[in-house]
Amino acid sequence: MRLPIKFLFVPIILLAFDASAANTTFNHKGIQKGAISESCYRNPCSVAKVMRFDILKKTPQATSIKLKLVGGSREWNAKKTSWNHDFHDVYVTCSIKKPIVKIGDQITVVPINPKGAISGVLISDAELYLHTCHNYYGAIEEAAKKYGYNVKEL
Predict the structure, then answer these.
(1) What pLDDT, in 10s, does the model give residues 104-134?
(2) In sequence order, what are the beta bridge partners of 68?
(3) What is the pLDDT of residue 39?
């Protein structure tokens, strides 16, 4: 029995769709060494400068990153940043289903979702996550729609 050629392509096409759905692309170009990430949801703005960027592990569904940051702050209308002199190791797990930011012993599953329901205390984590994982600067709920996040706050 001979199957028409068009029937042979259907499984290949379906396999290609499954593979691309599981293979989320993250963009880390904006958070390399020397990059500055700011979060200004309140005054003063929280500022971080990347001193080192390392990809620790990469799978089709997630990327684990270690950032060595120096923190600072600046007033909304100020151009000058007051820098701290201590470094922080921040670990970011880029994952559509379980986005994580870990600073010290504090592990935060970042509730990025299209409703924008995120508490103020988590906005800096969400913005740092989006800068790190998607090179995205903009509204958190728009990022959720664009990249397919629907993570609820715990």
Answers:
(1) 999 999 999 998 778 888 999 999 999 999 9
(2) 52, 89
(3) 86
| Bridge partners of residue 72, in order along the sequence | 47, 83
Report CA torsion sign: 106, 23, 147, 138. Answer: positive
**3 state SS for the chain:** CCCCHHHHHHHHHHHHHHHHHHCCCCCCHHHCCCCEEEECCCCCEEEEEEEEEEEEEECCCEEEEEEEEEEEEECCCCCCCEEEEEEEEEEEEEECCCCEEEECCEEEECCCCCCCCCCHHHHHHHHHHHHHHHCCCCCHHHHHHHHCCCCCCC
Whole-prediction pTM: 0.81
Q: Nearest Cα to 120, choosing from 48, 39, 49?
A: 39
Condensed to tens digits (0 to 9), the pLDDT of residues 18-40 reads 333 344 689 999 899 999 998 88
